[in-house]
TrEMBL record:
Residues 1-20 are annotated as: Disordered. Coiled coil: none annotated. InterPro entries: A-D-PHexomutase_a/b/a-I (IPR005844), A-D-PHexomutase_a/b/a-I/II/III (IPR016055), A-D-PHexomutase_a/b/a-II (IPR005845), A-D-PHexomutase_a/b/a-III (IPR005846), A-D-PHexomutase_C_sf (IPR036900), A-D-PHexomutase_CS (IPR016066), Alpha-D-phosphohexomutase_SF (IPR005841), PGM (IPR045244). It is an enzyme of class 5 (isomerase). PROSITE patterns: PGM_PMM (PS00710). This is phosphoglucomutase (alpha-D-glucose-1,6-bisphosphate-dependent). Belongs to the phosphohexose mutase family. It holds the Pfam family PGM_PMM_III. SUPFAM superfamilies: Phosphoglucomutase, C-terminal domain (SSF55957), Phosphoglucomutase, first 3 domains (SSF53738). Residues 15-157, 189-292, 303-417 form the Alpha-D-phosphohexomutase alpha/beta/alpha domain. Its EC number is 5.4.2.2. Its cofactor is Mg(2+). It catalyses: alpha-D-glucose 1-phosphate = alpha-D-glucose 6-phosphate.
Length: 557
């Protein structure tokens, strides 16, 4: 018998899940009862439609970052307190976000708790994060995250099981009172799923027949290392030198595990220096990806459009299930819309954050979707999936090379020849003063309300319309307001400004710019040069420098 005790607690401020779970400094989570409060608030918010917490089966995964071990123990104690009946936990608590989504679905679990702050740095001085996913395998929708927040504001008592420390380092099943703890290998099910989706033989024979085609995968010391090792080395038979930083480390080796040209610089440099044909990287929890080629960077917005374009030709999963609709987050470039139009498919524009794609997928109306923030995925699970995107690209490469040698750059240029090119870039201003950032966005909102922006011409661009993006979910009718200021120009160019919902310190301003061209002579232009006039307009309209005191962004992607 395990004794369940009740102890008094007090609510903590700010336990409001952001774009993707609650992310705070480790030190914040280390406060007495802070993590317990949040886990209990989360379990108590499990929706009735999923069966509630009593007798629930919860999948637990994460990127293995610093402080995960302690939180795993908290989850056991709180689960006992709430009458959860089974925890399915990855070995040492490590399961990538997409793999966890798969396990939730495959095992028909009630939901999942993911211990990750994704691409945010880890370690005692950095970030920790906790995210809840529902029974469809996707991030909890706002109705649930709001409930978690409400619970966290009124919590007065913790109910926990008093048990000795559970060992998560051995596979197998343990009974702890009425709670079963099952420890599984988080890689197996995922690799199996990938084999159902892609034609592994065709990818493998592409590598065998093109010995001089060289690739490099960078796990960024995050959770995808063991997955990369399995796929690229063990399954496709590539040399060990085709993977780097593939051992998960609790502090990511001090690196910022965010796959973009800035933070995956080592990969970019190796690809350039060694003249490699294909480079890919994933983030801390394995849901993001970056794809590069020889002298080629594939923007995530282009990547998802290209995958959608080739899906039915190159990927067995879509040959079998078809492609039913496409979607992107609002700031993501409209390249994928053009593919949808050409293919006669429905397409959707949702707010930032993967949770908004889930309903569309559950309703069978979205097969492939993506975000500009290096997120790409499909309805095989309900999270974005970094390695899935890499395998999709390898499938496309294997497919187009059957006819004639085709590089990543060739694939891009071919796509532009068909659809035109959507130049796109995002400027991030990290850790700026929160109040000033709010004021900057509020000023734009007021101008929008007073209709001061429409028809204004600035830097040669005339504004067609401006709004603060609002989303009406076509499936459940819920409305999400204030999702980002959109300024759309008469030539179709766009500027979007919003504040990040994943940072843990100050505010991060994200400025997105997009410009479309169907002038073939421009397709090889450099992105920043092509966008410079529009960026100047964005800075002028937003008065960003005046509000934030910054004249250069922290990161450009
Ligand atoms: C960012 C990205 C967003 C993504 C989210 C979670 O959110 O912009 O597109 O869904 O991170 O990704 P924000 O609110 O900071 O802009 V992950 O890989 O950190 O779970
Ligand atoms: Co992530």
């Amino acid at each position: 018998m395990v004794s369940i005790v009740s102890t008094p607690t007090k609510p903590f401020e700010g336990q409001k899940p952001g774009t993707s779970g609650l992310r705070k400094r480790v030190k914040v989570f280390q406060q007495e009862n802070y993590t317990e409060n949040f886990i209990q608030s989360t379990l108590e918010a499990i929706p009735e439609s999923d069966g509630g917490p009593k007798n629930a089966t919860i999948v637990v995964g994460g990127d293995g970052r610093y402080y995960s071990d302690e939180v795993l123990q908290v989850i056991v104690k709180c689960s006992l307190g709430q009458g959860v009946s089974r925890l399915i936990v990855g070995l040492n608590g490590i399961v990538s976000t997409p793999a966890a989504s798969n396990i939730i679905r495959k095992r028909k679990a009630t939901g999942g708790i993911l211990l990750t702050a994704s691409h945010n740095p880890g370690g005692p001085e950095n970030d920790f994060g906790i995210k809840y996913n529902c029974s469809n395998g996707g991030p909890a929708p706002e109705s649930v995250t709001n409930k978690i927040y409400e619970n966290s504001k009124t919590i007065t008592e913790l109910k926990v099981g008093i048990v000795p420390k559970v060992d998560f380092s051995k596979l197998g099943t343990q009974e702890i009172g009425d709670l079963t703890v099952e420890i599984i290998d988080g890689v197996n099910d995922y690799v199996e799923l990938m084999k159902e989706i892609f034609d592994f033989d065709s990818i493998k024979s592409f590598f065998t027949n093109n010995k001089d085609f060289k690739m490099l995968f960078d796990g960024m010391n995050g959770v995808t290392g063991p997955y990369g090792q399995r796929l690229f080395v063990e399954e496709f038979g590539l040399d060990k030198s085709s993977i780097m930083r593939c051992v998960p480390l609790p502090d990511f080796g001090g690196a910022h595990p965010d796959p973009n040209l800035t933070y995956a610089h080592d990969l970019v440099e190796s690809v350039e220096k060694d003249g490699l044909d294909f480079g890919a990287a994933s983030d801390g929890d394995g849901d993001r990806n970056m794809i590069i080629g020889k002298k080629a960077f594939v923007t995530p917005s282009d990547s998802v459009a290209i995958i959608a374009h080739y899906a039915k030709e190159a990927i067995p999963y879509f040959q079998k299930n078809g492609v039913h609709g496409l979607a992107r987050s609002m700031p993501t470039s409209q390249a994928i819309d053009l593919v949808a139009k050409k293919m006669g498919l429905e397409y959707f524009e949702v707010p930032t954050g993967w949770k908004f794609f889930g309903n569309l997928m559950d309703a069978g109306r979205c097969s492939i979707c993506g975000e500009e923030s290096f997120g790409t995925g499909s309805d095989h699970i309900r999270e974005k999936d970094g390695l899935w995107a890499v395998l999709a690209w390898l499938s496309i490469i294997a497919h187009v090379n059957k006819e004639k040698p085709t590089s990543v750059q060739d694939i891009l240029q071919k796509h532009y020849q068909i659809y035109g090119r959507n130049f796109f870039s995002r400027y991030d201003y990290e850790e700026v003063d929160g109040k000033s950032a709010e004021e900057m966005v509020d000023r734009l909102r007021h101008q929008i309300e007073k209709n001061e922006l429409a028809n204004k011409t600035i830097g040669g661009f005339t504004i067609d319309k401006a709004d603060d993006f609002e989303y009406l979910d076509p499936i459940d009718g819920s409305i999400s307001k204030n999702q980002g200021v959109r300024i759309i120009f008469k030539d179709g160019s766009r500027i979007v400004i919003r504040l990040s919902g994943t940072g843990s310190q100050g505010a991060t301003v994200r400025l997105y710019v997009e410009k479309y061209s169907n002038d073939t002579t421009e397709y090889t232009n450099e992105t920043q040069t092509a966008l410079k006039p529009l960026i100047d307009v964005a800075l002028e309209l937003s008065e960003l420098e005046k509000f934030t005191g910054r004249n250069t962004p922290t990161v450009i992607t």
